[in-house]
Write a structure and sequence with these properties.
Helix content is about 10%, strand content about 35%. A hairpin with a 2-residue loop joins strand 2 and strand 3. The chain is globular, with a radius of gyration of 19 Å. The relative contact order is 0.11.
Amino acid sequence: MKKLLLFIALTIFGLGLNAQNVGDVTTIDYDGYSLKFKITSVSPAECKVSGRTGSPTEVTIPSTVTISGTEYFVTSIGDWAFYVCSSLTSIEIPNSVTSIGDRAFSGCSSLTSIEIPNSVTSIGYDAFWGCSSLTSIEIPNSVTSIGDYAFSGCSSLTSIEIPNSVTSIG
């Protein structure tokens, strides 16, 4: 009986080692850079881009990532995720993303344009602050809020259309 209880305890403990929890961070390597994904929900399985390492010039954010055998939907770009990534010239955001966090792209001085998918509903504080090479940006009708100073310091941005769906501008 003791052996059976020991086996059950070890099995349960062993399974717990592979379980992912809200807040866990996983780094996935790409060509010359890495993206960090932080689990935001286990049911449904969701995560956000929480950071990067390296100096990528072009980034495609995946709509899903597999962490310990579980597929997680990438639903947001977290606060400070690409902060001062001065080498970044372009980024593709999947339709799974619903929010762009505070300072997500602040200081990305080489970023020239960005297309925000129709799934995004909010753009955070200082999200594109200091993106001095940003010449164009399309804000889709899905966006309802834009944070304070979201486009401050975007000295090359010549025009921006804000859709009627936006009910809050910082």
